[in-house]
Amino acid sequence: MALGDDEPPRESRLRLVLRLGLACFFVVAGVLHFVRPTVYVQVVPPSLPWPLALVYLSGALEIVGGCAVIPVR
């Protein structure tokens, strides 16, 4: 990379695309916890209390995790 060249190397662009893809995956999955909670409630083990609350909590945490991997420049 030459001095003054603002374009990132190819590897950096690939990592950026992969991180954005991962972020989108997590955010969409997290939103789906709120849109279709019954699908997720069905997979919560019966031994855990408050399955709907746990689905909402895990959805919120997935959204936060997805936002956390978005690269900041």
Sum up the structure in keywords:
73 residues, mainly alpha, 3 helices, 0% strand
Concise synopsis of the structure shown:
This protein is mainly alpha-helical and 73 residues long. It is built from 3 helices and no strands.
Rg for CA atoms: 18 Å
- The N- and C-terminal alpha carbons lie at a distance of 18 Å
Query: What best-fitting shape do the alpha-carbon axes yield?
Result: rod-shaped
Q: Note the total helix count.
A: 3
What is the number of E strands?
0
Structural class: mainly alpha
The succession of helices and strands, N to C, reads HHH
Q: Show unreliable segments.
A: none
How is this structure best described in words?
The chain is mainly α and 73 residues long. 67% of the residues lie in helices and 0% in strands. It has 3 helices and no strands. Helix 1 packs antiparallel against helix 3.
Secondary structure: elements and pairs:
Layout: H1 10-35, H2 37-41, H3 51-68
Helix pairs in contact: 1-3
